[in-house]
TrEMBL record, chain A:
The name this protein goes by in its record: Urea ABC transporter permease subunit UrtC
Gene source species: Bradyrhizobium jicamae
Protein localization: Cell membrane
InterPro entries: ABC_transp_permease (IPR001851), ABC_transptr_urea_perm_UrtC (IPR017778), LivM-like (IPR043428)
Keyword terms of this UniProt record: Cell membrane, Membrane, Transmembrane, Transmembrane helix
Topology with respect to the bilayer: Multi-pass membrane protein
From TrEMBL, chain B:
Sequence ranges assigned to domain ABC transporter in this UniProt record: 13-253
SMART domains from the UniProt entry: AAA
Upper classification of the organism: Bacteria, Pseudomonadati, Pseudomonadota, Alphaproteobacteria, Hyphomicrobiales
Native source organism of the sequence: Bradyrhizobium jicamae
GO molecular function: ATP binding
NCBIfam families reported for this sequence: urea_trans_UrtD
Protein name: Urea ABC transporter ATP-binding protein UrtD
Length: 389, 253
């Protein structure tokens, strides 16, 4: 990244966002590790992990906003890329268990021993190395998105049809990962992790480090998105969103743009999933459930489509609400509330929280300018007769 | 790209024996038409005569069932897609003004400039003086200098039409296909548009589809009247408008 991209992409809102995330990323772990348990400002470890989860969701929301908000690609299957990144990380964590598993097999994860498998399937090779797993976190979702996008965008599948096939994609993966013979732990998925890079996943220090890393990943993802949308490429994406065929007749290869941004977005979702898994301690096929992907789209809509900051904010707000309500007596009604929230936002805040705020501020500013101009005109009016004399 | 060894014709655009049908409806029927380099041609004809379909064929949106479509005497357009054809130098203005409404007038023109259109090129793009000078010049030509920072969606209908013509200028194609440029314009705007097209014609080949006969007359160029997918009459505006068949199917008595 050359400096001019950096300066162009960092406007005031972006800088504020980065500052807030960075501050939280440092303060929350510090308060957890340094302050005594009884202190009012002490953040308990379970909350660190919970907020770590929200941050991962925020990265997923950013990845959706990049394609939906700026390029008009409504993916209702982005949870699939998130889950694939999660599985890649989960496979590494499984291999780290080694002989500490219930069956004590140094190579095979417990579920494979349970299924009477004699050796590790080839696609599990290499996952005992962190670097390899980290590469797969980017590569597997990226490659799937590339192949999927290449077929879909070249055939000019757009709009609702694209949304439907993304749903079908994540549903197909859900069914595949449910199967025991698929080799990823079936219904139970991957869990019972012990350590990551030699550190105990349950330990306070590790949780804090993971939280900090998630915040860092959110900042990097955000800056990448900003760099993309504030470049000329961002203008082309918006052009594709608003008038696709016009963009084609200007000589842009629309499918290449879509493919680029879709693949980038899938890689981001994969990273989010990979950071999510060690913090929640499990990855199972339910992460592929179509409902999850739709929920993620709701976060973006609530926060404000095409604003990036709004997407991240929406993910945190909606998930905070979810935690709050599902842990109280209102728990059975959460899905109704989520549905109502989506309807209300669509009706009352079609631009989402941040989008509405932005247009309100824009209005304030333009009425301010209009008022200035009016007063200037009045002064001119006073002066004008003098000039006429 | 399918480039022929020798130049088959001196025409800038050459259509011969073109047929297109949609579900049995013959939209274009044995259409033959040539456009000389530097020429401006007006296309008239009743609704459904195939004017827009013809533009779709030239710009690669629709593939003809048979026939030849050559650009610059060497390039077979029937095998290329929209992007490739636009890159070759054929620009198009749509019937309904199509600009990027949520972006500024200036950015609309920036997007239209015929510079590197690759993903990499636009990601690492940085503005140059030459580019902004070209944009300034186009803004002046289409009289939108004062509106450069306004959102294209907030322009009046006539201004949007001009912006779209401006985008064509920024694209700087060899051939401009202009579909109904004065639809919805006031008389003054129509007159200005005719002046603008004449000015553009000094160094571009243009094909204009238009219903407004006053406008066509003002352009003062060769006219082709299409009917049921083929050429009904061709010649000066006076010749064409006095043609019996043209009067019957299009102009009315």
């Amino acid at each position: 990244m050359t400096p001019h991209i950096l300066t162009r992409s960092l406007d005031r809102a972006a800088a504020t966002f980065i500052l807030v995330v960075a501050t939280l990323g440092v303060l929350i772990p510090l308060s957890n590790l340094l302050l005594p348990q009884g202190s009012a400002l002490h953040v308990p470890t379970y909350l660190v992990a919970l907020w770590g989860k929200y941050v991962c969701y925020a990265i997923l929301a950013l990845s959706i906003d990049l394609i939906w908000g700026y390029c008009g690609i409504l993916s209702l299957g982005h949870g699939a890329f998130f889950a694939l990144g999660g599985y890649a990380m989960g496979m590494y964590l499984m291999r780290q268990i080694g002989s500490r598993g219930v069956y004590g097999n140094p190579v095979l994860p417990d579920f494979m021993v349970f299924l009477n498998w004699s050796k590790l399937p080839w696609y599990w090779y290499g996952f005992d190395h962190f670097a390899f797993a980290a590469l797969m976190v980017l590569l597997v979702p990226g490659l799937l998105a590339f192949c999927f996008g290449w077929l879909a965008f070249r055939s000019r599948v757009t709009g609702v049809y694209l949304s439907i096939i993304t749903q079908a994609m994540t549903y197909a993966l859900l069914l595949a990962f449910f199967r025991n013979d698929f080799g990823f732990g079936g219904n139970n998925g991957l869990t019972d992790f012990k350590d990551i890079l030699g550190f105990n996943v349950q330990a306070e220090g590790t949780r804090c480090a993971l939280f900090l890393l998630s915040c860092l990943a959110l900042i990097i993802a955000f800056m990448m998105c900003r760099a993309v949308v504030s470049s000329k490429l961002g203008k082309v994406l918006i052009a594709v969103r608003d008038a696709e065929s016009r963009t084609r007749f200007l000589g842009y290869r629309v499918e290449s743009y879509k493919l680029f941004v879709f693949t980038l977005s899938a890689c981001m979702a994969g990273v989010a999933g990979a950071l999510y898994v060690p913090q929640v301690g499990i990855i199972n096929p339910s992460e592929f459930a179509p409902g999850n992907s739709i929920e993620a789209v709701i976060w973006v809509a609530v926060g404000g489509r095409g604003t990036l900051v709004g997407a991240a904010l929406g993910a945190v707000v909606v998930n905070y609400a979810k935690t709050f309500f599902t842990s109280g007596p209102l728990a059975p009604y959460w899905l109704f509330m989520l549905g109502a929230l989506f309807i209300l936002v669509t009706l009352l805040l079609p631009k989402g929280i941040v989008g509405t705020f932005n247009s309100w501020r824009e209005n304030q500013r333009s009425t301010g300018i209009a008022a200035d101009e009016a007063s200037a005109a009045r002064e001119d009016g006073v002066r004008a007769p003098k000039m006429a004399e | 790209m399918n480039v022929m060894d020798t130049r088959a014709t001196s025409a800038m655009l050459y259509l011969d024996g073109v047929h297109v049908s949609f579900d049995g409806f013959h939209a274009i029927n044995n259409l033959s038409l040539t456009l000389a380099p530097g020429e401006m041609r007006a296309i008239i004809g009743p609704n459904g005569a195939g004017k827009t379909t013809m533009m779709d064929i030239i710009t690669g949106k629709t593939r003809p069932d048979q026939g030849t479509v050559l650009f610059d005497g060497t390039v077979d357009l029937t095998r290329l897609d929209e992007t490739r054809i636009a890159e070759l130098g054929i620009g198009r203005k749509f019937q309904k003004p199509t600009v990027f409404e949520s972006q500024t007038v200036q950015d609309n023109l920036l997007l239209a400039l015929n510079v590197d259109h690759s993903v990499r090129g636009t990601l690492f793009w940085r503005g140059s003086k030459a580019e902004s000078e070209r944009i300034d010049k186009v803004l002046e030509t289409i009289r939108l200098t004062d509106a450069r920072n306004r959102l294209a969606g907030s322009l009046s209908h006539g201004q949007k039409q001009w912006l779209e013509i401006g985008m064509l200028l920024a694209q700087d194609p060899k051939v401009l296909l202009v579909d109904e440029p004065v639809a919805g314009m006031t008389d003054v705007e129509t007159h200005l548009t005719a002046e603008l097209l004449k000015q553009i014609n000094k160094n571009h080949t243009i094909m204009v589809v238009e219903h407004d006969m006053t406008f066509v007359r003002e352009l003062g160029v060769k006219v082709t009247c299409l009917h049921e997918g083929s050429v009904l009459a061709e010649g000066s505006i006076d010749q064409v408008s006095s043609n019996e068949r043209v009067v019957e199917v299009y102009l009315g008595r």
